[in-house]
Amino acid sequence: MIDNLLLGLETAVSPENLLWCFIGVALGTVIGMLPGLGATTGVAILLPITLTMEPVTALIMLAGIYYGCQYGGSISSILVSTPGDSSSVVLTLDGYQMARKGRAGAALAIAAISSFVAAILSLLFLILLAAPIASFALKFGPAENLAVILLGLATIVSFSGSNAVRGLSMAALGILVSTVGVASGFSTDRFTFGNVNLLSGIPFIEVMIGLFAVGEVLHQIRRGGEKPIRARFRDMIVTRSDLRRAVAPTLRGSGIGLGLGVLPGAGATLASFMSYGIEKQVSKHRNEMGSGAIEGVAAPEASNNAAANASFIPTLALGIPGGGATAVLLGAFIVFGLQPGPLLFESQPALVWGLLVSFFFGNLLLLVLNLPLAPVFAQALRLPYSYLYPVIIFTSLIGAYAVGNNHFSLWVVFVAGLVGYLMKQFDFPVAPLVLGLVLGPLLEKALVQTSAHGEGNLLVIFQQPISLTLTLAAIVLGVGPGLLRTLRARRSATTRTNERQDIHA
Amino acid sequence: MHAKKTLLLTSVAILGTATLAACSSTGGDAGAEAAGDYSPGERITMTVPFSAGGGSDLAGRATASGLEDVTGTTITVENRDGGSGAVGYSHFMGLEGDPTQLLATETALMALPLVQDVKFDYNTFTPIMKMGDDYTLVTVAPDSPFETCTDVVEAARDGRVVAAVSGTTSLDSIVFSLIEDDQDIEFDRVPYESGSEVLAGLMGGHVDVASLNPGEIAGQLESGDLKALCALAPERYEYELLADIPTGQEQGIDVAFAQFRGYIAPGGIDDEAKEYWVEAGREFADSEAFTEYIEANYMQAAPLYGDEFTAYLDEYNENLKKGLGIE
Predict the structure, then answer these.
(1) What is the pLDDT of residues A97-112, one digit of tens each?
(2) What is the pLDDT of residue B240?
(3) Is A505 inside a domain boundary?
(4) Contact between A394 and B11 using a beta-carbon 8 Å cutoff
(5) pLDDT for A187-210, tens place per residue?
(6) I need a labelling partner for B188 at 20 to 30 A (CA). Which of A150, A163, A241, B157 fits?
(7) How far apart are CA B105 and CA B116, in angstroms?
(8) For residues A108 and A378, is the Cβ–Cβ distance under 8 A?
């Protein structure tokens, strides 16, 4: 182990590798910030320019882009409520509220710090326990995946808080929209009306750009004439009490991210939503969540970084990609003539360990880059909105076009923008809609697979220990909060009646 | 002020790197011109109807860079994914008569028109070059009781064998249909959405058997995490790793069906343009880059050009109809 780490260190600290690691994470931050352009697209776009490099250097840079994106994605979410990718959607809830209260700098700093802590923690797991974790992840078959998704859906209840009906109906709308296109496991198309662009479904990233970026801009324009946020410098800096409050959520978020990240398919988005949902149940400050709580920034940001690192576990240990970006990275391995698979650790020790050790440096660089820049980025909000809005719309449309490479994407953005505006106007929560959209196809796939597996019997999820546990957890998370509220209300009602009876007696 | 500059700078940086990415693969020195004096133009676009990083993308990029070297043109790769390839092919249909456009093609070109409501089929386009064949291996987990493909067939005859497929019109699904037809048996299918998902299902013991391209599982075969029972190919592979795997035919299963890879041009291009690209393809097939691509992906080189490729597609179409149960 020590030998391997030293070998990795030797590879990772060569000036060339450090330089490209830095370029990778810096580019990743930028790509992550741009709406629509996420890690998968970023790595794929930049793959060709790495072809002339040494394989290990190229992979260090490409991996840097990947986890750099996770940092960058949160910046635009917090500042202008425009998520760079789906795993930073949740940050628009509390991060953006913090920014509106003049605490953008603190929110960005907390995001960077909790990302860093989560990355280092998950990296330790990756280095120490990659093989056992990977073989545990393989135990997750259709039934287990179905249970995980049910758990994810159950978190919607905690998102919506007192407004459960609105939250649930938005999630249902999201799932409904996600049924457009060719269904998983079948070859017939649904709701496409002969439009080829709809065969692959309503494109998720474009919808997200529309809902958040365009929707928010329209909403602010409608409110009109607001002065830019005047933030005092004192509020920009992260305080000791902020940090103290971030500790537990960061640890919880890291754990959830690590757990979900290793499962092929589930990934960072689900992890960030779920950790926010959990935080809303267990945090001491749960009542503040939604209106700019530190916990609402630290937990999801930690979990999406942990998930990004964790998705390297099945990728490196088994040769099975943990998500979109790692799938592209596996493609890169083949381009460089490396055979991904369980033997990679043995056949390419310098490469694998060099890559892993470079994660330490990459994340350190990101922290050093992001912490001092946090107050600087936050200054963006001093811009008059008449300058800021066109920039947001412009970058959003570029992002959407770059993703889909056609005009249809732009139409989706406009329509989704209008929907997002109306939702804000009539106070419907946007996050459950996004979660529905993300989970819809996964839910359907897991349902079809579980059903095929159990010869039509879906109750198999209660027959395996893992899926049984997760399903029960989903039920508790789903009906628990409501039940608890009812019970509390009833108890206080009974005590009141009792008191009244005492008086009468 | 500062922030606006940052945002603008970032978008410029992205556009810059994207351009850089597009240009960097231009091998500076122009090779021999492919066919006489004719040239379709300097700027060529290669459409890949699947997302970046997948098998089609790798094939498209390898072809583009190989063709750049032999023609001296600049070929930009564009991913237009969606609808299992339908979006990309439909876009390509609109480029009729344009000799500066190419598309990295594979089996979806044949399967989509048979099962989905799309407006194209292979006759809509001009087939240029088929590069090679990618057959599948019938694969199980190492602790599986199955030792041969005959075992799998017998087990399916007596009871339930769960087969993983990566899509309803994907190669593995077609191959299992052909085995079912040939042996008069039935598999229970669990649909997945990609080869790597199938891989995870198989290694986790959630399915009994899968049919995967050797390039997808070479690493796992080498490490002993998967076991290949037979190759559904007309002959045994020559690659060292795969040479000991018997063919289906040796085990009494008369099925050999491959996914092809190659490239096509839009329909209605001039004969001159078609000849130019066919010549370029021939030169590409003689290059080191071609061999490297084929070997890295454990494929079988089987180049066919122009009308030969079209004739191959005619026959392929008939077999595919049988595999998909369409008459």
Answers:
(1) 898 888 888 999 999 9
(2) 92
(3) no
(4) yes
(5) 778 888 888 788 878 888 889 889
(6) A150
(7) 17
(8) yes
- What tokens appear for B87 in the block? 């979006």
For residue range B177-232, list pLDDT tens digits in order: 999 999 999 999 998 887 888 888 999 999 999 999 998 899 899 999 999 999 99
| CA gap B317, B110 in Å, rounded | 6
Cβ–Cβ gap B168/A140 under 8 Å:
no
| B247 lies in the same domain as B299 | no
ipTM of the complex in this document: 0.83
Average pLDDT for chain A: 86
Contact across the interface for A387 and B296, Cβ inside 8 Å = no
Residue B274 and residue B236 share a domain: no
Amino acid at A345: F
| CA dist., res. A304 & res. A202, Å (int) | 24
Radius of gyration of chain A (CA): 23
**Is there a single domain that holds both residue B204 and residue B122?**
no
DSSP at B44 = E
Judged against a pLDDT cut of 70, whether residue B22 lies above it is answered with no
The minimal CB distance from B223 to the residues A265, A343, A383 is found for A343
pLDDT at residue B196 in the model = 81
Whether A218 is covered by a domain: the verdict is yes
AA identity, residue A179? T
Q: Which of B117, B119, B124 is CA-nearest to residue B103?
A: B124
Reduce the DSSP state of residue B142 to 3 states and report it.
Answer: coil
Pairs of CB atoms within 8 A across A/B: 204
B326: tokens are 């369409």
Contacts of A27 in chain B (CB under 8 A): 13, 17
Strands B300-305 and B126-134: antiparallel
Q: Report yes or no: B289 at the A interface, CB cutoff 8 Å.
A: no
Let me know whether B128 and B266 are in one domain. Answer: yes
**Do B165 and B61 share a structural domain?**
no
Q: How far is residue A481's CA from residue A487's CA, in Å, rounded to a whole number?
A: 10
Residue A307's pLDDT band, with cuts at 50, 70 and 90, is very high
pLDDT at residue A277 tops 90: no
- The answer to whether A341 contacts B190, with C-beta atoms less than 8 Å apart, is no
Q: Which residue of chain B is at minimal alpha-carbon distance from A384?
A: B1
Angle at B221 between CA B172 and CA B252, to 5 degrees: 50
